[in-house]
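Lecture 7 notes: from sequence to structure.
We start with the chain below.
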Amino acid sequence: MERFGILSRRVVMPGGEAPAMIVINGGCIESVLPPEAAEPGLSVMDVGDRAVLPGLIDHHVHINEPGRTAWEGFETATRAAAAGGVTTLVDMPLNSSPVTVDVAALAAKREASRGKLHVDVGFHGGVVPGHAGDVAPLLREGVCGMKAFLVHSGIDEFPAASVEDCRDAMMVMKDWGVPLLVHAEIDSPVDIQGDPRSYATYLASRPDAWETRAVEVVLNLCRDTGCPVHIVHVASADVLPMLRAAKLEGLPVTAETCPHYLFFDAEDIPDGATQFKCAPPIRGQRHREALWLALEDGTLDMIATDHSPCPPDMKKPDEGTFMSAWGGIASLQVGLSVVWTEWRQRMGSLEQLVHWMSGAPAALCGLEARGAIAPGCRADLCVFDTDASYTVNGRDLFHRHPVTPYEGRELVGRVDRVFLRGREIDPGAKDGSGECIVRGA
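Predicted structure tokens for the same chain:
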């Protein structure tokens, strides 16, 4: 591969943002130099004032192939990722068929992805009842993490794990240093009343207490076993004090939130607008503000999309009934712009955004060669125009279906170019250069 340089007045590095020349050789970053230090004769791509970020790492994506490729698939998901500045995805173990709870299912995923990847893809394994013996084999196969639900997942083949199921898995995982990723809701009876087309009815059906009870259980398991845990898609401000206390205690716990929890307020979701349905639900403005503060103070470590599309009819658009619509939000291609649109209004830095959406996910998934612009790291890069704005049209997105709650929203920040191992990605190209990867890659 040709040795070349990328020059920008805004290169986002671990030490901050500065003008720099990134020298790329053999798919890796050879050096990061002051602009004036570029050697004569080196082929240089000058991107001017556009920022250069490390490629994003989205560790929470539902690709759904094989088995439910009509919902989403490797080709469409990775095209959307590439267009959105994401160079590495990690696929969740449910929604596909078979679900990824043993080595055979993982092999089926890898086989199904052959020839379809526009970015790199890793995999999480699943913790479900009756599969304690499959945890160690999945870890040997290089899964990035293991995922458990403490509530029904929505997929009968991926049932909720009990506390003992989680404990058994964690006793194996702790020796590997691999985290248990937990969908932290525990259901309890709720008297559901009201109009099923009303978002308020759906919100009341999954109260904050479901999240707080689950996080308490997970932190106790972490304390008892010493296994790292990661709380996915935190939506409720009420769990934040527990997470802060756990970190002060020194427990190996991390947590994420998602672009939709940082962008939308429950109070503004119209009746019948089932494209907003997800679990946990989008909560009120109080929660959104608290989540931003928790990112800033380190209580929350990272941001992931939880990209989870489905066929449009499963959203019940004609009925507009939240209680029967599938829950999941499609945002893989627009996640960076969504977060930047809000974060720039708060006078936030690109360096911090890169930590949340690249550096911290790399550490979580054991992908230390990614997530930063520094010598020796992978030359996975995103050229980002921080001032360009655009209006979201679902039909312009690469993911399989056009349904998105961001439809018609004006976002700021547009991905201009993306590089995977030093090669520029064309999301519209017939063939991609992505690979299946393992933890440690």
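Points to note: The domain at 55-372+389-407 is CATH 3.20.20.140 (TIM Barrel). The chain has one domain: 55-372+389-407.
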